[in-house]
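Quick one:
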Amino acid sequence: MVSEINLKSTITCPNCGHSKEETMPTDACQYFYECENCHLVLKPKAGDCCVFCSYGTEKCPPIQTGAGCC
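Output:
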């Protein structure tokens, strides 16, 4: 059981390498994310539920708690 959920995750763009810390939503998965540097719109990799699970330093809150995909 996870005692504390981390709501901050740093997303790194696979296209240009730009990184930015973002606050993850707790009530929904974020399926799209636009890189502020190169403007590529990121989508989750196959098998992941959101962009944080694919490109972030922390998995989304539901995955952190063991509740599964949003």
